[in-house]
Amino acid sequence: MKLILGISGSIAAYKAAHLTRLWIKQGAEVQVLMTDSASSFISPLTLSTLSKRAVHSDVHSETGWNNHVELGLWADALIVAPATANTLAKLANGLCDNILSAVYLSARCPVFVAPAMDVDMWHHPATQENIRRLQAHGVHVIPVGHGELASGLVGDGRMAEPEDIVAFVAQVLEQPRPLQGKKALVTAGPTFEPLDPVRFIGNHSSGKMGIAIADALAAKGAEVTLVLGPSHYRPQHQNVKITQVMSAEEMYDACDEVFGDTDIVVLAAAVADYRPKSYSPTKIKKKEGDMSLELEKTTDIAVTLGQKKRKGQVFVGFALETNDEIKNARLKLERKNFDFIVLNSLQDPGAGFGHDTNKISILDASGAVKTFPLKSKTAAAEDIVAEIAGAANQNAQ
Residue 366: CB partners within 8 Å, gap ≥ 6? Predict the structure, then answer.
């Protein structure tokens, strides 16, 4: 097991020595990263002696910018302990001014944070918002302890004890992997259908939901190919291979290439139904009067792949509806040969495009409907993947 232990500037940093020893005794490789302020609380020499590895602390060093990418890909898990309010804010908002935050942005592995701060800082709305944002990004937050704090106050905010951190990380990393050996295909994001070199027809999909599903499938052991339309977001898990596309036709070609060798297919992308019939190689100039566009249908990826579906494949679609949601989703499920379909509605506040949360219902071919409350897209992805795993294992029997 290859672990990165990130230490930020808190009095709780002294516990990092014991934490390192516990993992080393279990046979793990531990690479320690420290912020500048962390070295005021514990010596890098102490940690390098215990870990038997040089401690990295300066992203601007001669090797720092190369190491942060290499380390992010090397690790099986990244644990930030202690994670101060300042470090949590940086990670939640994508700031990158030290080796720890740089490695976090490069990591494609499970990430854990063990917060450590005074009680009022912990309960401040800004800190709690950063915690929610990190959780929405798939970060595992290790619960804080209650007790006497460095300020002399008593309350929440103590970093969890090293033994509890080790147990928490082990519980997550050792979760059952029911999809081990399965191959999965996931689509996510929008498609852009070009009109000229400047303009296109597209939609507001961020790709967050499909990316969360790809990560959740990989965490359950699947080997995942993610066909991703234009999106600023990327999966975290190292077992997700990304195929980047732009248009509906490119997305179909990428899916068709791997579909026959795939056990699980999740079509979560918001694919354009129409594209401009003709493309102008030069920018279309504005003229007097109105402008009309002639459109033609794009390939219906779900229908086309559904006709090729083989026995034992789990085939999952998505429906975003504004009215008659259940009825329309049911019709789509039957027409496209899905095993089940995930319905989300634009009528639900906090759900759909652009949000970090979603409220879903899952309809299967037998007529059953499961409805879930509003939750983070990461948590919603876990619900969807649980259904997929159940169907995949049933097919294997």
Answer: none
For range 205-226, the mean pLDDT: 93
Residue 183 and residue 221 in contact, taking contact as beta carbons nearer than 8 Å: no
Q: What is the DSSP letter of 286?
A: P
Q: What is the value of pTM for the model shown?
A: 0.70
* Positions marked catalytic: 203
Q: Per-residue b/e over 43-62, b at no fewer than 16 CB within 10 Å?
A: ebeebeebbeeebbbebeee
Convert the pLDDT of each residue in 47-73 to its tens digit: 999 999 999 987 555 454 456 778 888
Residue 306's DSSP bridge partners are: none
* Domains of the chain by start residue, with CATH: 2-173 (3.40.50.1950), 183-396 (3.40.50.10300)
List CB contacts of 101: < 8 A, sequence separation 6 or more. 87, 90, 91, 95
- Interatomic CA distance for residues 131 and 142, integer angstroms: 11
The torsion defined by the Cα of 199, 203, 207 and 210, in degrees rounded to 10, comes to: -130
**pLDDT reading at 349 higher than 80:** no
Tens-digit pLDDT profile for residues 82-111: 999 999 999 999 998 899 999 999 898 899
